[in-house]
């Protein structure tokens, strides 16, 4: 068993040895013990852009979750290998839409609406879903370009199918002035479309998926915060429920949240509704501001947290082995890339 110091020294040594042959991207939700070694940090969009731009690293050790590593593999060339330090670092939301369910939904929706639907998928989805979307003319979206991409899609077709996060889809559509009566929700458990009113008015078909971390921020949390700290600004991630986003002062991606707090006046007060590691880091980096988690119990993303310092070291020590390589099959990757590229040129 190595001590923390020994583990840290090992990472430093390997990074020095490999130089630009190694690239470590880190998502903002990663633990401090890991993020300190990231060559670049970012939200999902930035990490996808960086992967697409990086042509020289042979080894990309992705500190984030499975779908992010898949995206990096799709956007890099064949001689670049992408590693995920713990293969169990998935995303429960991405697992809420599988390809069979999506194909079943698509068939039923075509019967109902004909060829009037363009599929969009949040990047928090499997490569197979991205491939399905790419093959059907659609694109991926992230929380920082969802509005642009929904507008883009509704400029092409009358309707969209938005996979797999109902909250990001609903929040984005609502921000664009689309009414709740123009939104329906596909339930993959019952294979049924749930809607209110006239089905022909439906323009946005949401998928019944959600993030179990962000669903922990509630209307009650907002009310409690407002009661205790009337002057506090509330900023949340758009994976939170509609009611919470509506009551918050601001909503946006992880990078948006970071920048908003950086720009804020010293002495200002903030309650943040997003993953715990990021909230704690923002608190530490801004001792001049009063910052709390919108949910006082703090909400960790358990799968993001599977990537810890021992896993990072182990992964770096085994780059010549195939254990943790994320490799999307060429047929899937080719189609998924279409969906990702349609997003990247629009962002
Ligand atoms: P961002 O794109 O805002 O970084 O979000 C990624 C994510 O998984 C949020 O739960
Ligand atoms: Fe997935 Fe939610 Fe974790 Fe983001 S916070 S990786 S959406 S489970």
UniProtKB/TrEMBL annotation:
Main location, first listed in the record: cytoplasm
Cofactor note: Binds 1 [4Fe-4S] cluster per subunit.
Subcellular location: Cytoplasm
GO MF assignments: 4 iron, 4 sulfur cluster binding; metal ion binding; quinolinate synthetase A activity
Binding-site residues, [4Fe-4S] cluster: 91, 211, 301
Keyword Transferase: yes
Primary enzyme class: transferase
Catalytic activity: iminosuccinate + dihydroxyacetone phosphate = quinolinate + phosphate + 2 H2O + H(+)
The protein's Enzyme Commission number: 2.5.1.72
Signal peptide range: none
Function of the molecule: Catalyzes the condensation of iminoaspartate with dihydroxyacetone phosphate to form quinolinate.
UniProt protein name: Quinolinate synthase
Originating organism: Neobacillus cucumis
